[in-house]
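FORM 7B - TANDEM STRUCTURE REPORT

SECTION 1: FIRST PROTEIN
SEQUENCE AND C-ALPHA CELLS:
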Amino acid sequence: MKEPNEAIDIDERVTTIVADVFNEDAESITRSTEFVGDLNAKSMDIIALLAALEGEFGFPISAADVRRNETVGEASDWISQELDARDA
C-alpha cells in the first residue's frame, strides 16, 4: 500500500503534467477536473497527455487508458494502481 505522501506525490505530478499539456494554472486543476468537460480535451490533447505521462512514470499508456479515466483524480489513482502492480 502506498504511503499517503507517495499518493500525494503522484497527484502532484499528474496535476503538473495536466496543467502543462492543457496550458492551465496547476492551482486550477483538482482531482475532480474533467478532461473533456472542464479542459475540452481533444484527440491531440489525449495523445500529448499520454506521452507526457509515459515519460514521467516510465510505462506505456494507451489512449484508451487515458480516455477511461474521466477526471484527473481517476487518472492519478489509475497510475498509482499501475505502479503498484508493476512493483509487485
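SECTION 2: SECOND PROTEIN
SEQUENCE AND C-ALPHA CELLS:
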Amino acid sequence: MGFPVAYTELMLPKLFLQFLSVLGFIRKLITILLCYMGLHDFFEPDIAWPDRMPEFQSVSALLIGEILPVVKFSDLAVVDPPESCAVCLYEFEGEDEIRRLTNCRHIFHRGCLDRWMGYDQRTCPLCRTPFIPHHMQAAFNHRLWAASGIPDFYYHDHE
C-alpha cells in the first residue's frame, strides 16, 4: 500500500481553471477591441427593465403610503440629513423622492420604503418603530376596517 506516483484526478480541475482563465483573457481582449472601435456598449443591453412590482398590495400598505409624506431630498429641511438610504445604501441626491417617517424621523427612498411596505411591514426598517403614531392608530384601524369591506356590525361590540 502506498500513494500513487501522480494524482491524475487533480489535473482536470487545473486544466479547467486554465481554460477559463484563457477564455477570460480572450473576452477582455475582445472588449478592448470593441471599445477601441467605438462599440463599447455592444455587451450591455439597451433595454432597462422596470423593477417588478408586487402583484398584490395590502390595504394597510396603501393607507400608510397615504399618511407618510413624499418630498424631494433637496426640499427636506433637516440640519444633519443622512448621506445614504439604509435600505439600498445608495446616497441621496437632490431630486430623489423620499419618505420621512413621522415617529422616528428616519428617511428612505420612496421606492425602498414602498417595497418594504409591500411586504406588509408596518415598522421602520432601521429602528422598528411603528409607522403610525400612537395617537393616529385608532383612526388608522377604523380606515383599515372600512377599506376591507366588512360591515360595521362585525366591528362594534353589541351591548
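SECTION 3: OBSERVATIONS ON SECOND PROTEIN
Helices lie at 11-36, 59-67, 110-118, 137-148.
The chain has a mean pLDDT of 77.

SECTION 4: SIGNATURE
Preparer initials: ____
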